[in-house]
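Closing statement on the fe (ii) ion sub-project.
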Amino acid sequence: MDGFHVTIRTSASPLSGTYGRVWISLIGTLSESPPERVEHCLLPGSAYTVVIKSKEEVGIVVLLKLRLEAQPGFPDLDWHCGDVQVRRSSEDPEVEVFPCHKWIRTADGNVELRNAKVCLKNKETLAILTNHRERDLQQKQQFIKWGTFVEGGPHCVDTSSVTSLGPNFSYMHQRPVYNVHYIKSFIERRTSWSSLQELETFFLFNGRENTIAKYVQAHWQEDAFFGYQCLNGCNPLCIRQIHNLPSNLSVTSEMVRPFLPWDSSLEQEMERGHLYLLDYEVLDQLPANTVNDKQTYLAAPLCLLHYNRQGELKPIAIQLQQAPGPQNPVFLPSDSAPDWLLAKMWVRNSDFQVHQLLSHFLRTHLIGEVCCTATLRQLPEIHPLHQLLMPHIRSTLQINIQARVTLLATKGVFDKSVACGLETIPLLLARGTQRLRYSSMCVPDDIRMRGLDALPICYYAQDALRVWDALHRFVAGWIRLYYFDDKDVQQDCELQNWIREIFTEGFLGLSHIGVPQSFQTAAEMCKFVTMVIFSCSALHAAVNFSQLDYNIWIPNSPAAMSRPPSQNKGSVSEEDIFSFLPEVNSSCHVLSVLSLLSQPAVDFVPLCHYNEWYFSSGATTKLVEEIQRELKMIAKDIANRNSQLELPYPYLSPDHIENSVTI
Ligand SMILES: [Fe+2]
């Protein structure tokens, strides 16, 4: 035998190479070869073959051990290894590939690679590979630990430093340079907006090229548009159908009769499923922030909406606080125009808080981080679920660490400019976590429970259902590749540890939320995995990329209110309205952040497009092709539908959905 022919391939991207040298040994079924130093420069895109001979019989090579060593006098650069390919001899046509596709540092010591056979633990045929899985997890569990961001909120990764995660969890998210010149030029002005005209001039410079924002600006005062954006705006997760009025909403049949069909009543309309509610109870009695050294205010409104015979959803009653009483009137469309408009602005202000911190941060970013942390700690890299999920969740660690130390920290945008400041964020996130329901995270259940399937104008519901269904079929097909029956699911101890850890660390062991604590069937597993992928891709797209469109016209989404909620009717005039808005510098601070967050990345990866080796081999390739074909059809249908709409809903078109959470 002339020795093993081992080809070491460095990834092709320009910074993949290193001045260091690599040591390699082969771990076989019979013995381990002594480490051999590879005397080649590890240049980007290079492939070098070395011959490794061992005095002892190695047997079948099942693992490779690599160690990167710095060279004296040369910088200690990390190395991005593509893969290592092994042939038993120069003549052997069979090549065994050991994928790596990650950074290796000199500080990592020995790094073991195994062959590309993705499998479940109980399908391993060699003890040496079972042991390797266990070592992989032990190492990860030492390095990735659970921490607490806020008491009562989902646990998160226990570090506040992106660099401590190492190069495999750091990404350069390239976003286009967005011109915030005309927003930032206002940022020093600590006074109120003085007139509608001033706001219009500001908008002219910053929103004139945004067709959705222009529509918002033109229609923001209209009741039908108010209802429309509860369904299709940046926060479509709050509104729900009701069949009974909440006991704390002081609405009577008589009160709303003028806004209902002449031949119907409140009770009849409720029975027909035409009544909807926005309830911001989660904000009740929360302390509001001080912005520019001045107190801001929060409400906790209840807003009743009616789906009318013209196919419009219109607000018909708004109560600004939860507790009914004489100082908490119910505002009606028949009240004075300023009273009614201001009541709607309070709802929009509450929606801003809930959208940013619960619909966006909690429901996509934090849930993604919980699943990423549990995946790293409980699923070895060779587990098929690790391979499937990582492209969708990997970025959450870096992004959320950055968000916690910037946007959500002292002097960040919430501290300086939003009604929910640093004192309130932990309280709201804890309440939001308590109120999470697994059923509301799963689109078909959520849409049905909130009665959104009864509303032909709810494009969010229609598109979310189609994308969910496609993802669900993809995940089901993928599960069938590895789990032949429910018993396989029950017996996968790594999978069971994973979901258990998500339940205890992510959802704090709160069984009322309804997240599974274990999987008994492949169907349960399929639903949960679909939920994770959907939340980190489609849902994030729906709540993130819509932000600027609906918020840049400031009166439509004030991030803070400068005066307290009205306790009686007739106390505000048209001119007063603007004194409630956040001041100029703080509104511009919010908009400059939202402008950056709303841009798709330059290196945008669309939903279900994968660069990872695992997706371009064997049966997974077929599944990926199928889902991509299906998503393309959905995108085409949505484009056709949108071309007929006065105001399109583009956010859940698969063309616009990023594969993972972005900042
Ligand atoms: Fe985001």
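The pocket of fe (ii) ion is lined by residues 360, 365, 540, 544, 661-663 (CB under 6 Å). With this model delivered, the sub-project is considered complete and its resources will be redirected to Aim 3.
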